Amino acid sequence: MGRWRDGRGELIVRGEGGERPPVRVALEIAASYRARTKGLLGRDSLDGALLLSPANSVHTFRMRMPIDVAYLDRRLRVVAVRTMPPGRLGLPRLRARHVLEAEAGAMAGWGLRAGARVEVDLQAPSPTTCSGRLSPPCAGR
User: Fold this and answer.
1) Under DSSP, is residue 16 helix (H, G, I), strand (E, B) or coil?
2) What is the pLDDT averaged over residues 47-66?
């Protein structure tokens, strides 16, 4: 994995056992202290997902929307997935090294659940990358 830098990429969520094609989601990466501290504060929506690294917990104080939170271990395996309304403090997950955030309900649509493994592609996102809202090119995924 190495260390990431602030920037953009794609999150790839693979179906378990190859039962469905992978879902590619636009990804923002917040690796610096400043970017992690800001996170989703002040936003009304998010197209895709935000990866906070390193991180093992989050809060939703001063947020405007409920979010899905996935805690990832060092191998990018999902430890837990939670939906958090604004004004909450999430408990730290001991095995978590990264946290993935998205609009509430998005992760279920991607098939992301505990035990799943994700990949991060740091190449420039393609025009067919799905947003968190399952845009038309991704509606059937």
Assistant:
1) helix
2) 93
Answer positive or negative: Cα dihedral of 54, 78, 49, 5. Answer: positive
pLDDT at 135 over 50: no
Q: Which two tokens stand for residue 125?
A: 């996102």
Residues 6+ apart with CB under 8 A from 24: 10, 11, 12, 121, 126, 128, 129, 130, 138
Residue found under tokens 């509430």: 104
Buried b (16+ CB within 10 A) or exposed e, 48-58: bbbbbbebbeb
Return the number of other C-beta atoms located less than 10 Å from residue 87's C-beta: 10
